[in-house]
Structures are given as C-alpha cells and as structure tokens.
Amino acid sequence: MVSFAILLMSPFYKVRRNGIRAKFKLRKEKRSDLIRKLQIYLDQAGIGNLVPPGNVETVELNLHMKQGLSNKTYLLDIKTKTLSKTFILKAYNTNDNKALREFRLLKVLKSKNLPVPEAYLLEESGKILGKPFIIMEKINNTQPKDEQQLIDAVAYSLVKVHEVKPSELKNILEDKGNYPQRELDELKTLAVLSTFLTIGASASFMKYIKYISFLKPRAPKGRAFLVHGDYGFDNIIYSNGKAYVIDWESADIAEPTFDVAYICNFLDFYEQVKSETKEKLSEKFIESYEKYGGTLIELNFYRKLAALRLLLLLDILSSRGLLTTMIKIQLGLREQKLKSLKEFFIDKFKSYLLTVLEEKY
C-alpha cells in the first residue's frame, strides 16, 4: 500500500486530490467500523487467560512493520482496567482452514516447549474483520551478544522442530508420503501450466521444467518429520537467548534437510552481497545444527530443490496471466510486497539461486 506521505508529494495527489480524500475518508470510516466490531468481539470472547470477557476498554489496530508475501500482520493494542498489552493479530487472505491449521500447530508446539509465540484466540468465520484471524503473543526482539550466539539459537530451534513426528500432529498436518518426489511433481505441474498460461515468462518456466527433470531421478528417499518450509531469518525472532519461530503457513511433513538447505541458501546469498571472506555462515549453521543432534541427507540436492521452489514462486509472482492470478489468489500472495522487495535484491537473489541450481551435482 502506498504511504500517505508519498501520495501527498505525488502529482497524482495534486490532480486527484478530492477523489483521494474521499477514498481515505471511506477507508478511515471502514477502519473505524472494523475496530469497533473487533472491540465488541474481544470484549465478549476475551483473550485466553490474559483478558477475561467483559474487560476490554479500548482497542488499537495498526499494520506491523514486518509483512510477509501472503497474510497481513497487525499490532493489536488492548487496554483494560488492569492491563495494557500488545498482541499480534494475523489476518489470513484465504478462508481455507489455514488459520485453524496454524492455530492448532502453534498450540501443539507450545505444549512441547518449542520456541513459538503462544496462540490465544482463533476467529475463523471471517465475520469480524472480513477474513479469519488469530491473536498471538508478541515476541520482543533482543540483540544476541555475537553472531555465533544467534546461529546457535536458530540451529537449536530448528533441531527441536525436526524432532516432532507426524503422529504428534494428527488432524493438523497430513503425512502425504513420497517426499521429495511429490514436491518435484507439484513444482513441475506449476511450471508446465505457467508456461502456457502466463505472458512473457515461458522461457523461465521451461528452464525450471528441465531442472526438475534433472533432479527427479537423483532424489533421495526423504524422512518424515515436521518442517517449517520457510525457515529464513525473516521468520525468526531472537529474544533473550531463544530463536522464536513464526509464520507456519508452509509447514509440512517432509525431509528436515530441506529447512537447512533453505536457510543455507539465504546465508550464502547474504555473504555474497556483503562480500564476506570469513568462514561461511552456512557452514557455521550446519555445524551448530549437527552439534545439537540434527542430521542431514543429501544437502546439495535439497539446496537445489529449495532454490528451485523459490525461483518458481518468484517468477509466478512477477508474471502476468490468468494462471498466475489464480495462483496468487490461492496462495494469498501479495504483489505489492514483491515490488518493494524487488527494488533492493530480488533480481540479485534470483541470479544467485540460479547459480545454486547450476552447480555441479
């Protein structure tokens, strides 16, 4: 969403000033109505054991600075006679049980003492804010004393995630089996459809189909444990010695090595951008992961698979056509976030991911 300050400075604002004012007035009225409905709902429902029903006096709702590519995250400020506290409200763009799944998953992981935010409340009807949402604990970021402390915490949290078995997640995540072959099949389906139904990007998708064909006969047999599916530092909050893991929308029952490969790709890209020449952060991470009991299978293969998935999704986001529009709606992906990211590093990141794919196997 374009900021109000930018609009004020733009020629568009000067030409369409009255129309924009009307739009902002409408948005402001709509926002006030949503907040009023939210306050009434929370006053009736309460928020876990922290805010009993009938105690909510005021509610403030503001967009969080950190936003993902799919759902929207808000800072929710609640005031009662005895409490003033900030929560996280996560609103889901699609009404397909994603809110319910993440809420239940957070509940299970918290009960096992994994470092995740505590989930307090689920509203899945969409009748209050127009979409389902969950309210959860806000984790306050603190600074680690050094780089190694951060890497150790992030690796330790991932090891604990990978210890969770499918039997502990019944009715939350389904063990579909046949991993990573099914992942490659799903990516190939997306790539093939995108080749025919997008505008101006068919060559890229054809190239991805060739990479998939190369990887399929080389795919190792995967294990079946909980994986995060999007384990990057943007989904980790370091706080007082722990690395809290957030945004579980991509969680799956799959091979744990995928998560390690995924974050290693980001770490190596970060060092490439920074032109670092010290010991690789990815090597430090792997050392810590194995120190805490994690084990890896065919890391090179999974680094290519992680790179391939990201490249395909990034190209779908930036392409035009009926299919990509349908996929964006289904996945809840928001182009505005991609545009803001692209200005900084998306093109360089894609170039780096291609080098991962093209490295000798």
Describe what this molecule looks like in 3D.
With 361 residues, the protein is an alpha+beta fold. It has 2 domains: 49-138, Phosphorylase Kinase, domain 1; 147-358, Aminoglycoside phosphotransferase (APH), C-terminal lobe (Aminoglycoside 3'-phosphotransferase, Chain: A, domain 2). 51% of the residues lie in helices and 13% in strands. The protein has 12 helices and 9 strands. The protein has a 5-stranded antiparallel beta sheet, with helices on both faces. A two-stranded antiparallel sheet has the order 6-9. A hairpin with a 4-residue loop joins β2 (72-79) and β3 (84-91). α7 runs antiparallel to α10, α8 runs antiparallel to α9 (281-291) and α8 crosses α10. The two termini are 42 Å apart.
Integer average pLDDT:
84
Number-wise, the strands total 9
Q: What integer value in Å does the Rg equal?
A: 22 Å
Secondary structure category: alpha+beta
Strand order, sheet with most strands: 1-2-3-5-4
Distance between the termini: 42 Å
Give the count of helical stretches.
12
Oligomer: single chain
The global form is globular
CATH C-level of the largest domain: Alpha Beta
- State the order of secondary-structure elements, H for helix, E for strand: HHHEEEHEEHHHEEEEHHHHH
Question: Quick one: CATH superfamily of the largest domain?
Answer: Aminoglycoside phosphotransferase (APH), C-terminal lobe
